[in-house]
Amino acid sequence: MRIETLAVHAGHTVDPSTGAVSAGIHLSTTFEREPDGTYRSGYSYSRSNNPNRHALEQAMAALEGGVDAAGFGSGVAATAAVLQALNPGDHVISAAETYHGTTKLLRELLPSWGLQVLFVDMTDLGAVEAAVRRQTKLIWTETPSNPQLKITDLAAIARIAKAAGATCACDNTWSPIIQRPFDLGVDVIVHSTTKYIGGHCDMTGGVVITREPTELFERVRLNQSTGGAVPSPFDCWLALRGCRTLPWRMRGHCENALKVATFLESNSAVERVYYPGLPSHPRHNLATRQMSAFGGMISFEVKGGREAAIAAASKTRIFIRATSLGGFESLIEHRASIGGESPLTPQGLLRCSIGLEHADDLIEDLAQALG
Ligand SMILES: *Cc1c(COP(=O)(O)O)cnc(C)c1O
């Protein structure tokens, strides 16, 4: 099946008891036992598993081409479950530019558990190779990166991880459908389903997907039921509903973003545009090989730095000033002033999540905001 068909049908069943075509939301926390003590459908208690979470996990595994998936209450809970599957003394190599919540977990929470962490520039393969130690168990990638849209060569990093006997993980939150990490040798994919999967900025969740059955994934599964950071049935239902339209929404986000990025590059108030779909992006060729489209996220620097950027963002009428991404509505954000952001983020940088409005309206809005 092609990806659009999979997205519509994966994890979908018509309810056998009512014939309902749209899946029900199973709020029940507990499930009846048969007289002999067994469970009719394998569900016993909602933290351990429930029908909505199970359906979402099946769909996410199918969409990414993996064998299994585990749903969590947020993207960072999914990330934490992968990191907590490691042992004290294990060494993690992480991209220096990752989602700030991931960096925070690696810097502030997990070192006290005995995890060793080294941050490297993932675009520098020599630096990644040089960072490998005997204890290296995990290489964590995120591409395009947040917020500077650096492109990591996933196949090359996966080869380095394999040679080191380490797991290669990819946070694919920004690029569902358009980037296929498992095809490039990545072992584990993480998504914040809060973003493109949900697609409507109305639910929080995360998922870990594995390419093969592994001991590491078994520990992620144990963390899910025993750590207990599970998503609600309603949030799983919303995320799965998002999956149904995901390939078509991604098409719209990508098409709009390329038009907006091209406009921004030609605007005299703009210093620099970060978008892998532009031929001027330093890794445009790699992005073309690795992605089937270039995503809905754009960063750009406004001439005049911090004040000029904040002033431009204050004037938009269609773009909403808010953090997060992946919804149908366009968002704009001055990244350097958000709590926890890396000091490496340029002061004049605005990050846009390009939504599903008409591209010309978005361009007109940015043109007037940039004066
Ligand atoms: C938002 C985000 C996360 C964290 O997800 P939450 O659902 O907010 O916990 C992780 N990685 C990336 C790339 C993100 O954009």
Overview of the molecule:
By secondary structure, the protein is of the alpha/beta class. The protein has two domains: 3-241, 3-Layer(aba) Sandwich (Aspartate Aminotransferase, domain 2), CATH 3.40.640.10; 247-370, Aspartate Aminotransferase, domain 1, CATH 3.90.1150. It has eleven helices and twelve strands. It has helices at 3-9, 51-64, 75-84, 100-109, 125-131, 154-164, 215-227, 233-266, 284-290, 305-314, 359-369; strands at 68-72, 91-95, 116-120, 136-142, 167-171, 188-192, 206-210, 270-274, 297-302, 320-321, 331-334, 349-353. Strands 1-7-6-5-4-2-3 form a seven-stranded mixed sheet, with helices on both faces. Strand 2, helix 4 and strand 3 (116-120) form a beta-alpha-beta unit. 49% of the residues are buried. The structure holds pyridoxal-5'-phosphate. Residues 74-76, 99, 101, 142, 146, 171, 173-174, 192, 194-195, 204, 206 line the site of pyridoxal-5'-phosphate (PLP).
Low-confidence stretches: none
- The overall pLDDT, averaged over residues, is 97
Number of DSSP helical runs: 11
Radius of gyration: 21 Å
**CATH topology name of the largest domain:** Aspartate Aminotransferase, domain 2
CATH superfamily descriptor of the largest domain: Type I PLP-dependent aspartate aminotransferase-like (Major domain)
- List the bound ligands: pyridoxal-5'-phosphate
The biggest beta sheet is recorded as: 7 strands, mixed
CATH architecture verdict of the largest domain: 3-Layer(aba) Sandwich
Order of helices and strands: HHEHEHEHEHEEEHHEHEHEEEH
Structural class: alpha/beta
CATH class (first level) name of the largest domain: Alpha Beta
- Overall body shape: globular
Q: Which strand order spans the largest sheet, edge to edge or round the barrel?
A: 1-7-6-5-4-2-3
Count of the separate structural domains: 2
Beta percentage is: 15-25%
Report how far the terminal alpha carbons are from each other: 48 Å
Residues in helices, as a percent range: 25-40%
